[in-house]
Amino acid sequence: xxxxxxxxxxxxxxxxxxTMIVLIFIVAPIIVLTIVSFSSTNILQFPPxxxxxxxxxxxxxxxxxxxATVRSIIVALLTAFFxxxxxxxxxxxxxxxxxxxxxxxxxxxxxxxxxxxxIIAIGLYFLYVKAHIxxxxxxxxxxxTLIALPFTILVLTAGLQGIDERLEWAAQxxxxxxxxxxxxxxxxxLWPSIVASLIFCFIESFDDIILSxxxxxVSKPTLPVQIWISVQQWMDPTIAAVxxxxxxxxxxxxxLISLVNKQMQKFN
Length: 268
What we know:
By secondary structure, this protein is mostly helical. The protein is built from eleven helices and no strands. Helix 3 runs antiparallel to helix 8 (178-206), helix 3 (63-96) crosses helix 10 (223-233) and helix 8 packs antiparallel against helix 11 (237-267).
């Protein structure tokens, strides 16, 4: 018995050690990148001789970087909006309706997750060439919406399945119309899922580089594409500063999703 307990303790220690090694392996490049972004030199150097905010100032003062950032934010916001506009009624139909082929439609809406982005990007590129929308904001938003839509449907269907339909039935039995039930019962209980789906779509679009490489214009790139272009031309610490900002936006989004998930648990 004592030997078994000792074996369990050793196993836990080994598991903890392995977990720490994996975490260090994942976090170490981020820490190095963050430190390099505060370098005072003109080249990527670790450790930097002195700390400075000059590369963050360079990013904020460069019209190219600012334009790429604004473009990425606009595309991500439009992507989140249209993904919700399409995905919300689709999720309601999948969860609340019963019709033949519902499971097939549900699988079909999730097919973008089954294909590599590069395949989708190439297919959309040839389609856009014929439609003459390569390099346009419209084409980029359509492409990003295509890959973000499954996240909206997944999150919203999970949220709808977690709502007790008996509450909606009770409201209608007390005289509420379907519209009143939907706006005063369903939506308030579903809003954490709605917020989470919007954040997921925003992050998915904002961080995307594969679709943006094929569908955006070289003269009007998104922020990830602009990072790629800058890496090809000249690597200075501005790239590290921009990467840190991009990372912080993603982390903030994930933290918001975590807070929303805690809010969802209160309703369940």
